[in-house]
Design brief:
single chain; alpha+beta; Trna Endonuclease, Chain: A, domain 1
């Protein structure tokens, strides 16, 4: 996967492209499997955000999507302590 990030790093929009790719792949997987999940994002006026929130009646999952390193918003964790959280990046997205 490092070859991909090496090639993407020459683009100024590489992070946005990776985020869009990941969300599209997750959306396709949910559709293909016929799962009942809603996809949203979460953001506060202060700027704290989570790139993707996946939810259904039983689960609430916050996903931060970064091409390289990143971390989950502490504001999101504080507001939704019961939520699962995942950091998705080019090293762990398969």
């Amino acid at each position: 996967m490092h070859m991909i990030t090496d090639n993407l790093n020459i683009r100024s929009d590489a992070g946005a492209m990776f985020e869009n790719f990941v969300v599209a792949e997750i959306k396709k997987e949910i559709s293909y499997l016929g799962l009942d999940y809603k996809l949203k994002y979460w953001r506060l006026k202060s700027g704290s955000e989570i790139d993707l929130v996946i939810s259904n009646k039983d689960e609430f999952i916050g996903c931060e999507i970064r091409l390289t390193d990143g971390k989950i918003s502490q504001a999101f964790k504080n507001r939704y302590p019961e939520a699962k959280t995942h950091l998705i990046n080019s090293d762990n997205f398969i």
